[in-house]
User: Fold this.
Amino acid sequence: MPFCKRTILPKDVCRRRRGGEDSDANAPIAGFVDLVDVCGFTLCAVLRQLSDLSRHSVRILEELEGELVAVCRRSGALEGKLVGLQRHVAALVSKPPPKNTLTDVP
Assistant:
């Protein structure tokens, strides 16, 4: 069963964060004078969120690459063992069967 390695949560792209714990929760946030400011802030927040998402995707792909390399190494080792086993079986098949002196006794 797979376990969650990371949790990715969406961010509020149109809300600005308040200054701190002591700031008034009902006070208006300065900085948004008109709709252009809101659009610019939202665009920056969306770009930050896309950046975080791409960073997570790069980490996931790096993990997948590492797993694939490990599987490739293990399958190469298994292939080597199978080739050795095929050679050994071919050598046993090509030899004449050994004579058993115990079964020839009447």
Remarks:
- Helices lie at 35-94.
- The mean pLDDT is 81.
- Residues 14 and 39 are 9 Å apart (CA to CA).
